């Protein structure tokens, strides 16, 4: 250790002075194996990395520096393991590829596609002729079960792949919407006056009397929240694990026309008669964002899996693509009739139903290397028209399958859409081939991992931050605020109330 000592001449001299450390300079070129390892790490960071690494060299505390190095090492091992696990993903999505520029994929008919695919895939195209429509439908999260609900009171469930029927009910009253809950054991039905919950055998187990004339239903699987919006404009959230009403907010926009769920942050997008789309959370009594999307009523809306883009269709014969991050319109497409339904698949295909025709669009949300915004698509990927010219009511993609389900006035049809489904599934997330024991274990695990409604926000990664000293206010004493040095002057009217005198105040 360095120290000052007096020598024989009476001068102070430094003892045990360490020579300056020399920087290590590479003396030899990297080997081929080291180059491959660096390239592999760079590709893994590009695909699975979560931001820039921590600069541990700037941390002075040795214990903290060692902990941060250990954490960074774990992150590095995790992204390399995720990159190595890609070899287990045996299936890839397959789209229709035209052989030349003159050939168009939207000219292909469903009969030609069924003849080109395998026998097992062709058997997945089903048709149900029912006479109590128009119908609405819903798939479970794993795509195994199908729920059909007719406007005149008909309810039916089935395992559509195996052709195994479930329950069938005739309620003899108007049904506006139906939705599966966390698995295939329970489903909710918005009936004429109240909303009811049934089990897989069709037995009524609960009545939500607070939901009066609900028009749209949606379920948040990670929060166990059933959301319903009523004809009066009230949006209500119910915790299906406890049966308690979590929140109820008046939209003050009249009868709603559309309800869409953002799978990224669990925010609901509500379409109104005025052409606006409002974003709602159970933690706010007012809309988080209002978007004036169309000149007429909003007919339908949908959000892609990344949560970055929204498609909205209005009575003004337009379908618009919005960037939810900036709340700006990117592109606008014209339709011959008002689009009544929109659905977006896991792979980014968008199905837009207008009248008796459904059009499937590809690469609507794909960005190029030269532009940060998606380019405008000139022609659709596929089209399908109902053979008997029945009006389409709802379109929805089946999870983990290249199947698009369509409901109309005379029942249900499914068509093949190559490349629409996610080819590789996570069995711990949603397993299309789960057994009874796996379903029970997954239900218990999801209940243990249930998220609280307070976590729903526009930015799900934001937890909280500290206000800087220049903005944070002051300590209330007597008649007025006492400002902290370098703090901005804040009046008592702008400060929230404190529980007791002497507590810190924050700017409102």
Summary, kept brief:
The chain is mainly beta. Helices cover 13% and strands 33% of the residues. Helix 1 crosses helix 2.
What does this structure look like?
- The structure is a single chain.
- The chain has 508 residues and is mainly beta.
- The protein is built from five helices and 32 strands.
- It has helices at 32-48, 62-84, 110-116, 119-122, 436-448; strands spanning 3-6, 12-15, 127-129, 135-139, 145-150, 154-159, 164-170, 175-180, 186-191, 195-199, 204-208, 214-220, 225-230, 234-239, 244-250, 258-261, 268-271, 276-280, 289-292, 298-303, 309-314, 318-323, 328-334, 339-344, 350-354, 357-361, 382-385, 392-397, 403-408, 411-416, 475-477, 480-482.
- α1 packs across α2 (62-84).
- The chain is globular.
- The model is unreliable at 474-508 (pLDDT under 50).
């Amino acid at each position: 250790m360095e120290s000052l000592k007096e020598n024989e001449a009476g001068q102070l001299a430094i003892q045990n002075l360490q020579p300056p450390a020399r920087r290590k300079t590479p003396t030899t070129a990297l080997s081929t194996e080291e180059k491959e390892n660096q390239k592999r790490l760079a590709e893994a960071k590009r695909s699975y990395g979560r931001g820039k690494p921590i600069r541990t060299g700037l941390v002075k505390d040795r214990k903290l520096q060692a902990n941060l190095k250990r954490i960074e090492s774990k992150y590095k091992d995790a992204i390399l393991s995720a990159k190595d696990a890609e070899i287990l993903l045996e299936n890839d999505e397959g789209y229709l590829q035209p052989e030349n520029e003159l050939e168009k994929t939207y000219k292909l008919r469903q009969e030609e596609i069924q003849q080109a695919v395998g026998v097992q895939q062709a058997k997945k195209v089903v048709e149900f002729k029912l006479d109590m429509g128009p119908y609405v439908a819903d798939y479970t999260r794993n795509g195994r079960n199908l729920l059909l609900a007719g406007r005149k009171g008909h309810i039916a469930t089935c395992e559509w792949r195996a052709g195994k029927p479930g329950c069938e009910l005739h309620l003899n009253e108007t049904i506006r919407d139906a939705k599966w809950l966390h698995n295939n054991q329970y489903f909710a039905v918005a009936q004429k006056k109240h909303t009811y919950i049934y089990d897989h055998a069709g037995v009524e187990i609960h009545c939500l009397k607070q939901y009066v004339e609900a028009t749209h239903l949606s379920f948040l699987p990670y929060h166990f929240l059933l959301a319903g919006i009523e004809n009066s404009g009230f949006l209500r959230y119910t915790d299906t694990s406890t049966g308690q009403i979590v929140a109820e907010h008046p939209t003050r926009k009249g009868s709603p026309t559309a309800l869409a769920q953002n799978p990224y942050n669990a925010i609901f997008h509500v379409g109104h008669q005025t052409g606006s789309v409002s974003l709602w959370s159970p933690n706010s009594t007012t809309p988080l964002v209002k978007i004036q999307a169309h000149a007429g009523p909003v007919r339908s809306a949908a959000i892609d899996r990344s949560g970055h883009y929204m498609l909205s269709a209005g009575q003004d014969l337009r379908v618009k693509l919005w960037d939810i991050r900036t709340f700006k319109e990117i592109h606008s497409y014209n339709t011959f009739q008002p689009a009544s339904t929109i659905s977006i698949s896991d792979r980014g295909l968008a199905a837009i139903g207008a009248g008796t025709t459904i059009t499937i669009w590809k690469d609507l949300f794909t960005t190029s290397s030269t532009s940060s915004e998606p380019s405008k698509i000139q022609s659709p990927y596929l089209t399908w028209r109902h053979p008997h010219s029945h009006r389409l009511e709802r379109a929805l993609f089946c999870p983990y399958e290249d199947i698009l389900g369509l409901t109309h006035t005379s029942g249900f049809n499914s068509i093949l859409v190559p490349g629409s489904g996610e080819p590789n599934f996570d069995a711990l997330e949603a397993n299309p081939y789960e057994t009874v024991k796996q379903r029970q274990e997954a239900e218990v695990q999801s209940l243990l991992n249930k998220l609280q409604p307070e976590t729903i926000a526009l930015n799900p990664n934001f937890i909280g931050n500290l206000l800087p000293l220049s903005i944070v206010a002051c300590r209330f004493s007597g008649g007025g605020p006492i400002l902290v040095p370098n703090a901005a002057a804040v009046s008592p009217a702008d400060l929230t109330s404190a529980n007791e005198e002497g507590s810190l105040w924050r700017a409102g």
